[in-house]
Amino acid sequence: MNDIGGVHVKYLQHCPRQLWLYMRGYRPEQRSDTVAYGEAVDDTTYTRRRDIDLGEAKIDWVTTGAVVHETKSSRAPSEQHEAQVRHYCLLLERRGVAVQHGVIHYPLIRRTTTVTWDQRARVLAEEAERQAQAVINQADAPSRLDRPRCRGCSYIDYCWGDS
Question: What domains are defined for the chain?
Answer without folding.
Answer: 6-160 (3.90.320.10)
